[in-house]
Amino acid sequence: MMKNQSENINAFEAFVQRVMETEAAVGLAVSIVSADGTVLYEKCFGQRDREAGLPMDGDTLMGIASITKSFTALAVMQLYERGAIDIVQPVQKYIPGFEYRNITVQQLLSHIAGFYPMPRQSVAAVAQKAGLAAGEDPYHSVKVAELGLADLLESFNAQTAFTGRPGENFSYSNDSFALLSEIVRLYGGEATFAQYVEKNILSPLEMTDSGVRLVWQGDHVSKLYQMRGGEMAGDWTMLDDQGPHAGAGGLKSTLNDMKKYALMYLNHGKSIKGTRILSAYGIREMQRPRARCGLNEYYGYGLCTKAVKAMTVSGHGGDQPGVAAHLDWSYESGIAVIVLCNTAQVTVSAIADMAMRLASGYSESASSEGLEPVEWSDEMMESVCGNYRSGEGTVVSITKDGHGFRVSLDGAETTAFPINRHMLRVRRLIEDMLVSVYRNENGEVYALGGGYRMIPKIEN
After folding, report:
1. What is the pLDDT of residues 285-333, one digit of tens each?
2. Which of 88, 198, 358, 418 is deepest in the core (most CB within 10 A)?
């Protein structure tokens, strides 16, 4: 175990430094805790405000991006256990303006409702339409929620292409979790989704420095960093890349508060002080595999579950302007890992994976067994080549290069090779990406699956 063994700590910290240097991370915080609340390892690297020279610490407020989805799923499961909603019922029962009669709440929770990624709504635009006063938080405005819901339903109902039938294919959907946050608002007994989460999850867990808000003040709030045009920009705000519904990625927290959240899962739905947040059965249902989202990786309700060495590891990650975050825990090892970073597109998942391995008594190396290149026929190779585009703006272009491929991903050039009949391994600086290839009954490729999303092929 890491347990302050110098060789493990040195190896881990050298890896963290390599990731930070390679991906230009400004500040990063890591904690490893056991189920009884003991901190096995904790360290903050870099700065929360580089320009002011302020260091990262355990009370630095940062976004957690899509880890928020686990809070949204937790809120939905609370309402389910109280009898306020039934997750196996159609979404239309709870939001009549949603035109799809055969899509259930359960399918939204697992990203299997059949929707490709859609263009993102802007909370700033909706707040302006709502006439929000300066300083008023959009996530605490009923009018913003109502106007945003009308726009969201218009976008959903206008869809003409789908990943498959409801329940058939996994494709990560921020919009699905935006809709779930509206169900929480409408049936949770509070005026807004933000108020529900703060009253029913954050307050019972004593996460006093966290909140579902976009307006924050104080020098404990981290600046947000992201590369723009080859230069590091620190002028991003918490309004950037956010929709009017917070359920997909709107929660902000600290390392110290996120330890309390992680301990709730390690203790099967109870806080470290014994406060029950959700039944142990409900926590198991959130983790239960519902859809395959990667190689030996499955999605439940707002949580992913995967195999790491001889452990089952559950958790979630997130990335948005100025945020890269990851939370993992394992009942086999009895520990949880939290990694928070104030710089976008940093591979914090690799840091969390290494922390989990070392703290659980395994070697630092991740196994690549079964990920070696295999040969495809020329016909199979050619069928993958072409251009792909998602509603969120991701653009992928693939061309044949010998027995492998040249890949352009949002303008960045890399290579890829097949590792089985339905999957490519795409090379990246820190952690390679595994990309699924979707073919129809005629063997024609119609989409790729990477970064948890299905991206449709477009005409060349």
Report:
1. 999 999 999 988 999 999 999 988 889 999 999 999 999 999 999 999 9
2. 358
Q: 93: buried, middle or exposed (CB in 10 Å: 19+, 13-18, 0-12)?
A: middle
Task: Examine residue 75 and state whether it is found in any structural domain, yes or no.
Answer: yes
| pLDDT recorded at residue 430 | 87
CA distance linking residue 357 with residue 81, whole number of Å = 34
The pLDDT score that the predictor gives to residue 1 is: 46
Strand 433-439 and strand 445-450: pairing? Answer: antiparallel
Asked if residue 2 has pLDDT above 80, the reply is no
**Do 382 and 285 fall within a single domain?**
no
Residue 373, domain member (yes or no): no
Residue range 64-70: mean pLDDT, rounded: 97
90 and 62 in a common domain: yes
Q: What percent of the chain is predicted at pLDDT more than 90?
A: 86
Given 367, 400, 426, the domain boundary residue is 367
